[in-house]
Design goal:
Radius of gyration: 20 Å
Strand order of the largest sheet: 4-3-2-1-14-13-12-11
Distance between the termini: 31 Å
Shape: globular
Order of helices and strands: HEEEEHEEHEEEHEHEEEEH
Number of domains: 2
Number of helices: 6
Number of strands: 14
Largest sheet: 8 strands, mixed
């Protein structure tokens, strides 16, 4: 579901107007079926405005990410790879705000064979744009959320918006088990026969938040007179998910520094 830009904190009226217009043009030019404001990653000298869209009815795989520095001009980000994500996680500190900025990274690599095997330090240079790609992918993997039943998987494995989804009930919205990670399941978790009996393979194809580690990494609260349920990630501070029970309205937004909260185990 699309989030009204006027509700995004930290955006001036001018930025809201620029984003609203430029996103419509981006969706038209890239021939996307949907395009949403994903959020903003704060940098030292500038901020990255992020948008995500899909080309067809498939909602989970093939999502395309874009970034802008001025709310007007957008650049397409390359798909994340395992190598880019692995190396980007070694970078510490705030984003600079310059996609061309290069981080110097020293990596230990094994060289030689047999008795001549030894380790050597190799200097790698990683552009901030690559770090941005990896950070968006990690946040999507660990903190993007969807309510149970909002999406449905076809027999061919494609994920579509569920047209019959009418929202979670109030009682369901109070349980973490009613919310899923909106990301492809990398390693399916083993479930008991009793758990499998209660699952619908068409809608229960994602991982539930209730088993996330460490326990307590999600904050579930009610706002606006108990009419909106809000989930906040304590692992990625700044990621917020909302859902209005008994309606199909839901979505998420990230506004933060793009750094994982490594102190979380000591905060719980």
């Amino acid at each position: 579901m699309e989030l009204s830009l006027s509700l995004v904190p930290g955006l001036s009226p001018e930025q809201c107007a620029a984003l609203r217009t430029s996103l419509q043009l981006l969706r038209r030019d890239m021939r996307l079926s949907s395009l949403q404001c994903w959020g903003k990653i704060l940098g030292v000298r500038g901020d990255y405005y992020i948008a995500q869209g899909t080309e067809g009815e498939e909602q989970l795989r093939g999502r395309r990410s874009f970034y802008s520095l001025n709310c007007l001009d957008w650049c397409l980000l390359a798909p994340p790879t395992d190598d880019v994500i692995r190396e980007a996680q070694l970078i510490k500190g705030r984003f600079i705000g310059d996609p061309a900025h290069e981080y110097e990274l020293i990596v230990r690599r094994k060289a030689g064979e047999g008795s001549a095997l030894e380790e050597e330090d190799v200097t790698r240079y990683i552009k901030e744009e690559s770090r941005l790609i990896a950070t968006i992918a990690l946040i999507d993997r660990e903190a993007a959320v969807a309510p149970r039943g909002a999406f449905i998987r076809s027999p061919l494995g494609q994920v579509h918006i569920n047209p019959s989804f009418r929202g979670l009930t109030v009682s369901e919205s109070k349980k973490l088990s009613s919310f899923f990670h909106f990301t492809p399941t990398l390693i399916p978790k083993k479930k008991s026969l009793l758990e499998k009996a209660d699952l619908d393979p068409a809608i229960d194809f994602l991982d539930s938040l209730e088993h996330d580690i460490p326990k307590g990494c999600w904050s579930l609260q009610w706002e606006r007179g108990s009419s909106v349920v809000v989930l906040r990630s304590l692992l990625w501070l700044g990621m917020t998910f909302y859902h209005v029970p008994l309606t199909p309205q839901h979505g998420y937004l990230y506004i933060g520094s793009g750094e994982r909260n490594i102190d979380l185990p000591f905060m719980i």
